[in-house]
Amino acid sequence: MQWRAGSKLSNVIFPDGPEIPLEGGDVTEGLVRIGDTVRRPRGPEAGLVEALLTYLEQHGFAGAPRFLGIDDDGRQVLSFVAGEVAGRPWPVWMQDDDRIVSVAELVRAYDDVAHGFGMPSDLPSRPEIAGAPPSRAGAPTFVAHMDITPENVVFVDGRASALIDFDIARPADRALEVSKLLLWWAPLMPPEDREDAVRDVDAVRRARLLVDTYGLDDAGRAQLVDLSINGAERGW
Hints:
This protein is α+β, with helices and mostly antiparallel strands and about 240 residues long. It is about 30% helix and about 15% strand. The protein has 5 helices and 9 strands. A 5-stranded antiparallel beta sheet has the order 1-2-3-5-4, with helices on one face. A two-stranded antiparallel ribbon has the order 6-9. Helix 2 (about 95-115) runs parallel beside helix 4 (about 205-215), helix 3 packs antiparallel against helix 4 (about 205-215) and helix 3 (about 175-185) packs across helix 5 (about 220-235). The chain is globular, with a radius of gyration of 18 Å. The protein starts with 19 loop residues before the first strand and ends with a helix.
């Protein structure tokens, strides 16, 4: 599948105004808000993100920014998604089971729609980091979000409403996507590596709640421990 979205709505004049830097997570350098839009530099895989966001809009998925076009400075123009996002340090509401259930529901809804997008045919390969163990993930089946950090989920009235920051969206399968969900929202990491707000939560209980809510099948569940360990080793 060819995925270069190009300059959708390139004849539109986007609003000018003060550029407000967006901060809070490991954000892309140069990410700013202007009015009701977000401007971000276009990376090597920007075309994939633009095509994916366009597809999500066309298929009625409301839980993602809209790709509006390219501004005069060559930056992506996205709709600004209003709501509540966890900054650092994480807020105490990260302990809330209802919140994490809504995140799992949102990710499942995104994954279901994204399956129809297809697999990109000309995605640049990503070099392996020297010394990293090989990935034990299964064959990819769709373009997953893969970066479901608390900083990348927007809440409205206490429920997950939108995913943002699709910069590292890439082919994966459901089990790998869910392993990333568990990393941050259970969270499946040593207590000493967690933010204070979730340092003492029962991560295994929350992981079960997330997996059950997402509805991962038995084959995917059987892979989760191995994928989580492999992901930690590769990340380290």
